[in-house]
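A sample copied in:

***
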Amino acid sequence: MLFKTALKATTVRVAFMLHSLAAVFATVYTSQNSLYWFLSVAFIIMGMEMLITYTFNETGEWKWFVPAAFIYLAIVVPVIWFLELDQLDYRTTLQSSLGTTDICPVRISQEAFETYACFANKSLEDLQSSTGQNEEVYNLQVFFSTALQQTLMMVLILGRWMMPRGHLSRDQLSQLLLVYIGMAADMLEFSLETLKIEQIACHRNIFLSILCVWSWSLLQFTLGLTATKGPKRRAFGRVQRSATDERVRAERRRSRVEQFSRRHKTLGILLCGTEVWALLTSVLLQDGPFLVMRLYLIIAFKIIDQSMFFFTCKNALLLVLQFYRLFVVISESSKSHKKHQADHAHDDVEQGNVQNSQNGPRTNGKRTVGNGSVHIIELGNLDDSVTELPDGLAHR
């Protein structure tokens, strides 16, 4: 591996480790629980992954999967879960102290506590002590969770940009980064804004479902399938081969095409490159789950605001466009497959003509010996008559 490639890959992994270390520290600091330091064990796994990648991959990164990003997410995502669950426990405890489920204390401040105390007919000190946690710690957890989610997206996008391109071209990498930016904006709105809605902030099952869908969508950053397939280049000109080699090659190609047509035509159309997989990945990991969850929130909880309505329509429109794109890609692949068969048939016919022109007219010869002279008797191509050359032309 080149030194420049190794340096870029190492820099990205060091950035992943530093951000993960800051995330673990934030959790330990706010919860005062040192057991969270065990998440740092993943740093050893990341170091082992780096050595394996440097040893067995000369390009610096794997083609379809980014293990460094997966290990990084395996550290930061649980930290964000711990911070969000601590906030959820604080809100549900405070809600129980208020004695009602109609109010979910999303905003925690001194003024808000005074309002809650008046509503519950309790003193401010009793209400604050019932939660078992200081409101300053809660607000600090909110700050750390929001900051980690925002910086997580930035580190993932910048890290993928700085990583060795591997098998990706510059055009494919630029498209991949643009797709990442669009995905990150939708993910941040889904996690930050949706979890703060009052009807959801104290509903444990829905809260956990949203976190699961958000975590599931982050797996897109570990895949390299969003890069489109580059155009194929055809070389012009032919290499001169013997007639026997051309005949053997033609028979092999014809056999492969026939076998592909009989057994793998449908499979070849469906698995027609990375673009199909990229579209399916976006549908299954983000736009589909996000649309289902947002529609459920609108229908079940009557949550209708401008932001929710806009992003719901956005996910629905993206799904329609992606399915339309899938139809176009599969149709074009089917046409390309038929054209590929026609090209092979045309090449076989052309190769047969080349062989006939190289071999020349087909003749059968016979020598006769008589009276010390040698005669050449040649059979014609167009008739069965026998033509005997004169002695003056046949003698040597």
User: Anything to note?
Assistant: The longest strand covers residues 373-379.
